[in-house]
Design brief:
Layout (H helix, E strand, L loop, with lengths): L6 E2 L2 H5 L8 E2 L2 H26 L3 H18 L8 E3 L4 H8 L10 H25 L2 H6 L2 H15 L1 H6 L4 H20 L2 H5 L1 H19 L9 H5 L15 H7 L2 H20 L7 H18 L4 E3 L1 H10 L5 H15 L1 H8 L3 H25 L7 H15 L4 E3 L2 E3 L1 H18 L13 H5 L1
Parallel strand pairs: 1-2
Antiparallel strand pairs: 3-4, 5-6
Helix pairs in contact: 2-3, 2-17, 3-15, 3-17, 4-5, 4-13, 5-13, 5-14, 5-15, 7-14, 7-19, 7-20, 7-21, 9-11, 9-19, 14-15, 14-16, 14-19, 14-21, 16-19, 17-18, 20-21
Length: 445
């Protein structure tokens, strides 16, 4: 366990708002509390993705914890990251399994086979990167590309809380109350309370929601009956993969998107911590790939390093990998305990939506931070065009269909950013910068 030893930072560091690095940790009680916050940050998306694909959410939660432990072990505890359900799989899984969109996925086996194949390819890419380095990937995915891809992930997910997590006017106001609560905690508190801004803001908003909904009847009351009726322990419904060539060909290319996501996340953490994690890039890819294989074998979704948790780290300035051991352990408990899962699911939907707005926004800002920290020159037409097109493709969920294969917004933005940059990098003609060109208003005068 020597390689997992962390330097404990003194309490004064917390009060002064200093950065806690990957190889450092808070005192164990605060570390455990931060683990809870990371579970809450990942929970909504990790549960939502399997529901959209007809998978068992409890399996997804369980495998997110196991996958995070796998990632931790393969990276030697050097890369702070949580692995959760990847949204990049949703479109291809639905297409491969012909899922109708409601209830359990009756053809889940072929989807799992494709997920396993994707994980194998992802791990192979990681092995190549570990052997020869990251230069060949960085050539195709420089900071202007990775920053755009990370930002797009947050912007693409923005529609989930806005459109799907606030069905009534009261719910929309409660979303506002939630993200304002998080903002107040972030700005006006200090020390550990400020570090736990997502968790504390969620608790405050849930109390306000209970007063207004359960007490005054303004909204749908919080229902805790599911907590009482749920069993303390219960095994989730495992499924077995079926290896179908068409499904594997459809789902396996998602590995490229996962590489871009992981690369962007590591670059974001590098920028935020000031510590170069490139030497662990290959191992991070391998860890994510192996975790995806294990998840697919058990009946879970494909996993990815979670931008939601990158957002939490950006807000708290705590990058200790020790936190993710606690988060993973909690997720595994949730996976085997319907009662704990019911307790988190009892959190009001608009409150979870308000938290999602904050977290998804922080993801987008993390992408912009990659640009700033790497001094991306937006006076160059090439960088402007790559970033501009990528952001709109991803935010607008631009989808391309290739027969039975549908490439959604994150996919088109990822591949688009890589291809457009490669094209323009080879043929960047001299001329007036787009940024310096006169505006439409000026030209019309």
């Amino acid at each position: 366990m020597a390689m997992f030893d962390w330097t404990e930072r003194p309490a004064a560091v917390l009060q002064q708002g200093g950065v806690i690095g990957p190889d450092e940790r808070l005192p164990w009680p605060q570390t455990a509390a931060m683990g809870v916050q990371h579970v809450i940050a990942m929970f909504g998306a990790t549960v939502l993705a399997p529901i959209l694909m007809g998978f068992d959410p409890n399996i997804a939660i369980l495998m997110s914890g196991i996958g995070t432990l796998i990632f931790f072990l393969i990276t030697g505890g050097k890369v702070p990251s949580y692995l959760g359900s990847s949204f990049a799989f949703i479109g291809v899984v639905i297409a491969a399994s012909a899922y109708a969109g409601k209830g359990p996925n009756g053809n889940i086996g072929v989807a799992l086979g494709g997920i396993v194949a994707c994980g194998v390819i992802y791990a192979i890419i990681g092995a190549i990167v570990h052997a020869v380095g990251t230069h060949w990937i960085e050539r195709f995915m420089p900071p202007v590309v990775t920053g755009a891809v990370v930002a797009v992930i947050g912007l693409n997910l923005a529609g989930i809380p806005i459109k799907n997590m606030a069905p009534t006017n009261f719910d929309k106001w409660m979303q506002a109350v939630t993200f304002l609560s998080v903002g107040v905690v972030a700005v006006f508190t200090r020390g550990m309370v400020q570090r736990l801004l997502i968790l504390v803001g969620l608790i405050v908003a849930s109390i306000i929601y209970a007063v207004l909904a359960n007490g005054l009847g303004w909204g749908k009351p919080i229902d805790v009956s599911g907590i009482a009726s749920a069993a303390w322990f219960g095994a989730p419904a495992f499924s077995t993969p079926v290896f179908s060539a068409p499904a594997m060909l459809l789902i396996a290319p998602v590995a490229i998107i996962l590489v871009a996501e992981n690369l962007g996340h590591i670059k974001a953490v590098t920028a935020m911590t000031g510590r170069n994690l490139d030497q662990y890039m290959g191992r991070a890819f391998i860890g994510d790939g192996v975790a995806t294989v294990v998840s697919g074998v058990a009946g879970g979704t494909g996993v990815t390093t979670y931008a939601e948790n990158i957002g939490v780290m950006a807000a708290t300035k705590i990058y200790s990998t020790a936190i993710f051991l606690f988060a993973a352990a909690i997720a595994i408990v949730l996976g085997f305990s319907p009662k704990f899962g019911a307790a988190i699911q009892a959190i009001p939907l608009p409150v979870m939506g308000g938290v999602s707005i904050v977290v998804f926004g922080l993801i987008a800002i993390a992408g912009a931070k990659i640009w700033v920290d790497n001094r991306v020159d937006f006076s160059q037409n090439k960088n402007l065009i790559v970033a501009a097109i990528t952001l709109v493709l991803g935010t607008g969920d631009y989808t391309l269909n290739f027969g039975g294969f549908a490439l959604g917004g994150i996919g088109t933005a990822t591949f688009g950013a890589i291809l457009i940059h490669a094209l323009l990098d080879r043929s960047s003609p001299p001329g007036v910068s787009v940024a310096d060109a006169p505006s439409v208003e000026t030209r019309s005068r």
